[in-house]
């Protein structure tokens, strides 16, 4: 009867475990779910997309633009328009439209059309008089000091581009860090599950020793101390299993958090991390094929500060602007005053201008110049510090990798020796040539050796995933 009850209980436990761990989640599918569901990652990705949009926006400085306007005026001031024309009332409607384009060499070009219609009311005239003026034009402006060859515009754009790229690199670095944490949460869960299975096996081993001693004690072949030692070992095994289950639940909760799952009871079967450790064969070595993104961000900060300094020098100093305009004037008129030849002009016109400006706040300009220089030096020093740190971190990764491989090799060798020792002690125990205490000591030594192997594999995974995240992200 007891045997039947045991079979039923085992079957129910199996069904429960099968329902809880029905979903097997490999690493790639897990990361896809994290990218899809994790709010923090979605926030970072949205910021990345926003910065990329701002990078594209910088080219708008050289894009075509359309400017257009209309104006209506009603003037009853009776101001003379010429020696012979003093209207009682003037109505004027004017409109203009132009397409503007800034070129890389700093010249602003406008191509457009000016149009106007004027109606004059004169007391001694029976009808209203007026003119229609249409004037297509081309206008050029070129700075001869600030923006010669587009230097000021290019510096401002380069500064904005460097600032945006610095922010983009930093966001990508945050994304890498978060994905690395998600990966390690996955492998920590795999490790925790492996430890739980190991603790169950270890508990079964000491339970067998207890059963063996109880059988021998019933036949007066073992001492009471053997029973007590075995019972203590079983209790310790249960305690270790409980702690391992708690660690598994914590690890599972972290994984669910990355998956944006609020229910802590949802659990998944995951890849065996021991299989991941087997991929680190003797020929595998960490490689660095790119610069860490936080360092690239700091280098872009240096570029931003440098271009900011250049732009400040250009915009805060004197400027000399050359401008010119060419227009094709076409005027039609209903005026009867023949003497006013200006109103009938149909010849093209052109103009050339030169304008000089000089800010007089020399002291303030000096203070600003010192500030921009200090900002550049600060960015340079930060970049130097991060570059040195990145190099030291990489060397530390190489040292940690070699140490972890050596520890893994030694741990595996020690585990094999402890397994052999356990087999020998079991033989001696059965023949009564050793004590329960020594056998339990062997069991504990084997447990420690196995945990060392598992810990060394997890350390190899941690180093490998970190290197892949920060130094091999282009692969």
Overall geometric form = elongated
Order of helices and strands: HEHHEEEEHHEHHEEEHH
**Structural class of the secondary elements?**
alpha+beta
N-to-C CA distance? 61 Å
Report the β-strand fraction as a percent range: 15-25%
Count the beta strands: 9
- The residue-averaged pLDDT reads 84
Provide a count of the helices.
9
Low-pLDDT stretches: 1-22, 336-343
Largest sheet: 7 strands, antiparallel
The portion of residues assigned to helices is 55-70%
Radius of gyration from CA coordinates: 42 Å
Describe the protein's topology:
Elements: H1 2-20, E1 24-25, H2 27-37, H3 39-57, E2 65-75, E3 89-102, E4 107-121, E5 129-143, H4 151-218, H5 224-258, E6 269-270, H6 273-278, H7 293-316, E7 319-327, E8 330-333, E9 349-357, H8 362-430, H9 436-471
Parallel strand pairs: 1-6
Antiparallel strand pairs: 2-3, 3-4, 4-5, 5-7, 5-8, 7-9
């Amino acid at each position: 009867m007891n045997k039947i009850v045991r079979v039923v209980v085992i079957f129910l436990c199996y069904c429960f475990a099968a329902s809880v761990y029905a979903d097997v989640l490999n690493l790639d599918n897990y990361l896809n779910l994290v990218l899809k569901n994790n709010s923090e990652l979605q926030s970072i990705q949205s910021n990345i997309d926003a910065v990329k949009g701002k990078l594209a926006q910088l080219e708008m400085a050289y894009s075509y633009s359309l400017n257009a306007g209309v104006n209506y005026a009603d003037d009853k001031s009776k101001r003379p328009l010429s020696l012979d024309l003093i209207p009682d009332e003037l109505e004027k409607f004017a409109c203009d439209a132009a397409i503007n384009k800034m070129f890389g060499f700093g010249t602003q070009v406008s191509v457009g059309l000016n149009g106007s219609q004027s109606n004059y009311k004169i007391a001694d005239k029976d009808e209203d008089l007026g003119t229609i003026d249409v004037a297509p034009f081309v206008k050029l402006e070129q700075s001869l000091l600030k923006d010669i060859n587009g230097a000021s515009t290019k510096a401002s754009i380069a500064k904005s581009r460097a600032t945006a790229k610095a922010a983009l690199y930093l966001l990508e670095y945050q994304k890498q860090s978060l994905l690395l944490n998600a990966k390690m949460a996955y492998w920590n869960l795999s490790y925790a599950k492996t430890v739980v299975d190991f603790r169950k096996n270890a508990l079964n081993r000491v339970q067998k020793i207890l059963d063996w001693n109880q059988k021998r004690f019933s036949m007066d072949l073992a001492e009471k101390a053997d029973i007590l030692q075995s019972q203590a070992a079983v209790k310790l095994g249960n305690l270790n299993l409980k702690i391992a289950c708690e660690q598994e639940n914590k690890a599972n909760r972290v994984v669910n958090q990355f998956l944006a799952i609020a229910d802590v009871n949802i659990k998944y079967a995951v890849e065996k991390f021991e299989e991941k450790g087997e991929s680190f064969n003797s020929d595998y070595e960490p490689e660095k094929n790119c610069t860490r993104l936080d360092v690239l961000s700091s280098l872009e900060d240096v570029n931003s500060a440098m271009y900011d300094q250049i732009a400040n020098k250009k915009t805060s100093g004197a400027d000399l602007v050359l401008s010119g305009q060419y227009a094709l004037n076409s005027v039609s008129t209903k005026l009867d005053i023949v003497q006013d030849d200006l109103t009938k002009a149909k010849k093209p016109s052109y103009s050339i201008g030169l304008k000089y400006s000089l800010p007089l706040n020399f002291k303030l300009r000096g203070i600003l110049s010192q500030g921009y220089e200090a900002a550049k030096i600060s960015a340079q020093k930060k970049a130097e510090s991060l570059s040195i740190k990145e190099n030291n971190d990489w060397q530390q990764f190489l040292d940690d990798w070699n140490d972890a491989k050596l520890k893994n090799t030694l741990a595996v060798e020690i585990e094999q020796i402890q397994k052999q020792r356990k087999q020998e002690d079991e033989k001696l125990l059965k023949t009564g040539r050793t004590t329960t205490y020594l056998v339990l000591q062997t069991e504990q030594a084997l447990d420690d050796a196995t945990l060392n192997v598992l810990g060394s594999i997890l350390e190899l995974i941690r180093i490998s995933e970190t290197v892949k995240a920060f130094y091999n992200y282009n692969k």
